[in-house]
């Protein structure tokens, strides 16, 4: 599974605070995640994390480019 920095992971199990969305702060053997509900940070092994992912939300790359170069 392709997980990148800045991705927002929707998990099958929610955090005790009630949020099930986590932001990816670090990838590697372990993932460092931050709960979007309470801001709690946690490290979990990659394999365990991937099993628990329901959906990956990634901001579209290049979507923010302003359309100001059309009349060149
Ligand atoms: Zn939380």
Please tag this protein with its features:
single chain, 72 residues, mainly beta, 1 helix, 5 strands
Global geometry: elongated
Structural class from helices and strands?
Answer: mainly beta
Write out the distinct hetero groups bound to the structure.
Answer: zinc ion
SSE succession? EEEEHE
**How can the largest sheet be summarized?**
5 strands, antiparallel
The end-to-end span amounts to 41 Å
Helix content: under 10%
Mean pLDDT: 89
Number of strands: 5
Q: Which strand-content bin applies to the residues?
A: 35-45%
Main β-sheet, spatial strand arrangement: 4-3-2-1-5
**Radius of gyration from the CA trace?**
15 Å
Number of helices: 1
Q: Provide the low-confidence segments as ranges.
A: none
Description:
The chain is mainly beta and 72 residues long. It has a domain at 8-57. It is built from one helix and five strands, in the order E-E-E-E-H-E. The chain has one helix at residues 46-52, and strands at 8-11, 21-26, 30-35, 41-45, 53-57. It has a five-stranded antiparallel sheet with strand order 4-3-2-1-5, with helices on one face. The longest helix has 7 residues, at 46-52. The radius of gyration is 15 Å and the shape is elongated. 8% of the residues are buried. The chain binds zinc ion.
């Amino acid at each position: 599974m392709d997980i990148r920095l800045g991705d927002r992971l929707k998990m099958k199990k929610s955090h005790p605070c009630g949020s099930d969305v986590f932001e990816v702060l670090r990838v590697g053997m372990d993932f460092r995640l931050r709960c979007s509900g309470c801001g709690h940070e946690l490290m979990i092994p990659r394999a365990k994390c991937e099993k628990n992912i329901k959906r990956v939300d990634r901001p579209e790359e290049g979507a923010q480019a302003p359309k100001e170069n059309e009349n060149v």
